[in-house]
């Protein structure tokens, strides 16, 4: 080590005992592990925590006569596929909901089984069923959960031409449909740089940004911000900065929120954008986010603190 480096090291650690330096290294390592863990939440599955009741599983003639659409009837996969293709809109909805519920199991959802059975192209076709928005929603939810899986499973959704239909659903008058489409696109963006760039090239980011209004429900806003963060993430290669810089003023305004999940994902998005060349860092600084980021370094929420710390570190 050179004399200059020796002096720099001595100055940097002046007044620190060996124990203090070791403790500091441990704290930094813990933060890095937490950051790595948080950084992996790039796909999310919409879990259905409501268990089927006995009434849900009623397949009797009486249940059919009631014609209830509220609870899915337990079906085999072939029956489900047949029902999803039915000309009867009620049967289509019930069968599609059954498929969605199978894909919403917390543990070991049978994604590959349903892909092999042909669920994906059927669900994609049902995204056009505007006369039956409940069926559209169930189909979108099912596809969202398939896209939350492996890259091959996500690719199945992409190859079925679901992306243009999800982008069309962003303009749906039904908020639950627009939100589910946002979630699906977020999962696709989170699969990697190639799918992220595909969505950016198709203009997904401005369409998602356009969904933000002063009265937007918090849960919807969370999904939007998380999807935006996925459209900004991955470094190999990084996204085209000219395609993502449009989200900076929006993220700056949203930093005023006090919702923990939203704040965390905003900070992650800013950390991805600022993790690069000086012009990217300067663009982040120019939005005026730094004072708020410094405030967030005092947050008691680890998810916020870690992401804010990474962004400030980049700057």
From TrEMBL:
The keyword Protein transport applies. The keyword Lipid metabolism does not apply. SMART domains: ARM (SM00185). Residues 1-24 are annotated as: Disordered. One of its GO terms (biological process) is protein import into nucleus. Residues 1-54 form the IBB domain. PROSITE patterns: ARM_REPEAT, IBB. Transmembrane segments: none annotated. One of its GO terms (molecular function) is nuclear import signal receptor activity. InterPro entries: ARM-like, ARM-type_fold, Armadillo, Importin-a_IBB, Importin-a_IBB_sf. It comes from the Eukaryota. ARM repeats lie at residues 161-203, 288-315. Keywords: Protein transport, Transport. PANTHER family: IMPORTIN ALPHA. Belongs to the importin alpha family. This is Importin subunit alpha-5.
